[in-house]
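Researcher: Please predict.
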Amino acid sequence: GSPLLATRLNRAFPERFPGLRLVGTQHGYLTSSEQTRAVARIASARPDVLLIGMGSPLQEQWLARYRSRLDVGLALCVGGLFHYWANDLRRAPAALRDVGLEWAWILAQQPHKWRVYSLDAAIFAATLLRLKRETAR
């Protein structure tokens, strides 16, 4: 996420999770040399859990690239979770979640993600259907 999101998360985390110790945060907009230093800081902190929220597929690619250099018990890619924890995003009302429309609620809050919920979703669905047909043969 952005530097502002990292700052908001630093403030919100202790209130949200009073029994957990946050050993660090880092925004995701880093140069190559900053990436190397961030990986070294994570490795030296040896956290039990590393949460990576850079958006897909960037976060998965980042973890695949650096996983062998990190000394962490569990590394998870969490997408937009930090936006919820920092109170930048609100969960959809239960009625919308119950009928599978939370994506529409998120889209209303983040209209810049229209492509993810339209074009990318259609491409993903088409790919799944193609793979299903190929494996059924």
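Model: The mean pLDDT is 90.
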